[in-house]
Specification:
Elements lengths: L2 H25 L6 H4 L1 H5 L16 H8 L2 H8 L1 H33 L3 H4 L15 H4 L12 H34 L10 E5 L10 H12 L4 E8 L2 H27 L4 E3 L9 E3 H26 L1 E9 L2 H8 L11 E4 L15 H32 L2 H7 L4 H4 L2 H20 L3 H10 L5 H39 L3 H14 L1 H21 L1 H13 L4 H8 L6 H18 L6 H22 L11 H26 L9 H23 L3 H4 L9 H6 L26 H6 L1
Antiparallel strand pairs: 1-5, 1-6, 2-5, 3-4
Helix pairs in contact: 1-17, 1-21, 4-25, 5-6, 6-9, 6-24, 6-25, 9-26, 9-27, 11-12, 14-18, 14-19, 17-21, 18-19, 19-20, 19-24, 20-26, 21-25, 22-23, 24-25, 24-26, 26-27
Length: 725
């Protein structure tokens, strides 16, 4: 990419962000848009503009974000959201501190060398794929081989690594404190009084599953055991319940239409309401509801009596016993009576609870293998798209576009955005597949599945986006030479010289992500348009309107790996092309501001795991640092720097640092510490209410006074959990 195209891309992205920010300022003050820009406040029963300013100043939201405290975030959006801001501020601190030393040091050192001028006939070591620009002169590519100036770049690797160790250690301690404070809360949380028991053996003759588990835990915990809930196979009853809820929504919609128009609506009884007999909608859905209620009650009795499984939720009368039981070995055989802390009721993935230990292990390894194969083969279309979307290659493949591409304005726009947009489209197709695969491992909770999917997505992004794009263009042009002369030194040289040649691409990619990405995030233009279209043409009831504007959560499964990819890119180019540190600081700084506003006003958390995402984030940051150190070892070697081996101690230190952090901190995230669980509550827990918290809607009776809870029930907090189960 030429320097002019880079500036056009950067300027266009910045201009779009300013426009989107002004749109946000204007649209968020309209009363008809409050459900899009303040849904979190509305759901909590607060006034949309309470504590905020209606000034016309487009930067007022920044002041509100700056003045909010971490406790405000915890109170409004939970610990998990606060932990995400710890991640953003940690990345911001790493790159800001690194940039304070590296930018004034490395840029003059690189700019005053003359490697590119002396090698002007060889374009294999530039940052802009064949064009010498001002950006090349400010990069490590302008440093002559064996130059003593390379000492400064080696020192920069050490500085970035030490800064990262400091900020990661500080962040891990802080998140551990956040988690402990939340778990020590005096409020009653059902999951703190329960454990999840899996891999139960079949009961002896003459005993039911419930009697067996009650006797087992009552013998071990005679004074603190309360009762148990045996997990049941709910697929059929869930389907009946879903249909019943659907009929209720359609009945409410028909009644709303009747009230608004004074005409009783009708519909056809066939497929999708398009064929079949024409009937009165209100009478028809009322009849279906009555039929479904009868079917539901019959199926509920069958489920409780005949479909109990070898998993259960066990309740205790205090938190410390539950915490102790969750981290204890209950059976000599480790594949029997396995226990863990119970997830929140709304998080449970019920269909996974009955999967046996060895079945889960086999599923896990199979899915790891499948994901690895997917990553390897997905790189082929990514590399192909990255290669062919360069204008030079497009003209070879599609010759008739040459006259259009030769137009300066068209060429500039295509060079600026085409490869990046193609890459983003490919990445958008993945998250649902990875989340599905993670749940298929037998993971018992939604938050755990999201963490697993996030990890897969991160490694996928790094391998296919970072490494794939880095090598793609070079491979496209040199594959014939490699095939003719497949020597190891040629392959190593290819790997060593590919990274700096993609620097300008990634500078543009990061700029596109923070200007366009966060501009759309702040303005919420797309959700606003969709909401008003649905409200005008589709929604007839208040429930349908609420469903249309409900914002969901921060989408950690894609947001966290997306941020980690930017962190990895910034790490790996921080010494080779130090200008990327400015872009990294801008990305995480702007992200902190925009998401602060969204967390306080927009997004509604769908679960609370008390910061369990942090060990995952910490491990991936260290993986990014490790990759950066390996890359610098290879690139300094390509520069034939005699002291390249001095990078090896850093690689070893990173591995040791990761091990020490895991040994010191991870246990407090895997289990609840007993010193945390022993804190007194402000009121005695209602154990029956805690028990009822795990009853699924599909097993709840429509006549509560007549229903007997037989311990084979669990609870979903929302309709989405039924779908997940």
């Amino acid at each position: 990419m030429e320097f002019g195209s880079f500036l056009v891309s950067l300027g266009t992205s910045a201009a779009i962000f300013v426009v989107l920010m002004l749109l946000f300022t204007w649209l968020s003050r309209k009363p008809g848009n409050v459900t899009i820009y303040y849904p979190n406040r509305i759901i909590k029963g607060l006034e949309p503009w309470e504590g905020t300013s209606l000034t016309r100043n487009p930067l007022a939201w920044m002041r509100e974000a700056f003045t909010s405290s971490e406790q405000d975030i915890v109170n409004v959006s939970g610990v998990d959201t606060a932990v995400h801001f710890v991640f953003l501020s940690t990345a911001l601190g790493i790159f800001a501190c690194s940039g304070l030393l590296l930018l004034p040091t490395l840029l003059p050192i690189a700019a005053t060398d003359h490697n590119l001028k002396t090698r002007s006939k060889n374009a294999t070591d530039t940052t802009s794929k064949g064009t010498f620009s001002q950006i090349d002169n400010l990069s490590m590519a302008n440093i002559t081989k064996k130059s003593p100036r390379l000492w400064a770049f080696l020192g920069a690797v050490y500085w970035i690594s030490l800064v990262t160790y400091f900020f990661l250690w500080k962040a891990y301690k802080h998140v551990s404190t956040l988690r402990a404070q939340a778990l020590m809360s005096t409020d009653v949380k059902p999951e703190q009084f329960a454990i999840l028991v899996r891999d139960m053996p079949h009961p002896p003759d003459g005993q039911t599953q419930k009697e067996f588990i009650d006797s087992y835990f009552r013998e071990i915990y005679p004074e603190t055991f309360y009762r148990s809930l045996v997990v049941t196979e709910n697929s059929k009853v869930n389907k009946i319940w879903e249909k019943l809820e659907g009929y209720k929504k359609k009945l409410a919609r028909a009644e709303a239409i009747n009230e608004a128009t004074n005409n009783r609506p009708t519909n056809k009884t066939g497929m999708c309401g398009l064929v079949g007999k024409q009937v009165d909608s209100i009478e028809y859905y009322t009849e279906l509801i009555n039929e479904s209620v009868a079917k539901l009650e019959t199926e509920q009795k069958a489920v409780l009596a005949e479909k109990q499984q070898t998993a259960a939720i066990v309740f205790f009368n205090n938190r410390i016993t539950a915490a102790s039981a969750a981290q204890s070995l209950h059976c000599q055989m480790v594949d029997k009576w396995t226990v863990m802390e119970a997830p929140e009721p709304r998080q449970l993935i019920w269909k996974n609870l009955n999967i046996k230990l060895f079945g889960r292990i086999i599923r896990q390894y199979f899915i790891y293998f499948f994901v690895a194969v997917t990553i390897l083969f997905y790189m082929i279309p990514i590399a192909f798209v990255s290669a062919i979307t360069t204008l030079k290659n497009l003209q070879k493949i599609i010759p008739f576009i040459k006259p259009i591409v030769e137009l300066t304005s068209v060429r500039t726009v295509l060079e600026s955005f085409l490869p990046q947009i193609a890459l983003l489209v490919f990445l958008a197709m993945l998250p649902k597949l990875l989340l599905f695969l993670s749940k298929a491992e037998g993971i018992p909770s939604q938050s755990h599945a999201i963490r697993a999917a996030s990890g897969k997505y991160f490694y996928f992004s790094v391998f296919n986006v970072f490494i794939g794009v880095t090598l793609a263009g070079t491979l496209f042009n040199t594959v014939k030479d490699i095939a003719k002369n497949p020597k190891l030194d040629m392959v190593i040289n290819l790997l060593a010289t590919s990274l700096p040649k993609s620097a300008t691409f990634f500078l543009t990619y990061v700029a596109l992500k923070f200007f366009i990405g966060y501009g759309l995030e702040l303005s919420r233009i797309i959700p606003l348009i969709i909401f008003h279209l649905k409200k005008k043409f589709l929604c007839k009831t208040e429930a349908e309107v609420k469903e249309a504007w409900y914002p969901g959560d921060l989408s950690y499964a894609t947001r966290v790996p997306g941020d980690l990819l930017i962190l990895t890119i910034t790490f790996c180019y921080s010494v080779i092309a130090p200008l990327i540190l400015v872009f990294g600081v801008t990305y995480f700084g702007l992200g902190w501001l925009v998401l602060r506003n969204q967390a306080l006003k927009v997004y509604v958390p769908s679960y609370e795991s008390y910061g369990r995402m942090w060990p995952h984030i910490h491990q991936r940051i260290l993986a990014a640092l490790f990759l950066f150190q390996v890359v610098m070892f290879g690139y300094l070697g390509a520069k034939t720097f005699f002291y390249t081996a001095l990078v090896i101690p850093l690689i070893i230190i990173s591995l040791i640092f990761g091990y020490v952090c895991r040994q010191k901190f991870y246990g407090g995230f895997e289990h609840t510490a007993l010193e945390v669980a022993c804190r007194e509550l402000k009121q005695s827990p209602d154990l029956e209410e805690i028990f009822r918290a795990y009853i699924p809607h599909s097993l709840s009776t429509h006549k509560p006074d007549e229903h007997e809870f037989k311990g084979a029930m669990s609870r979903y907090q929302d309709f989405n959990a039924i779908s997940a189960a």
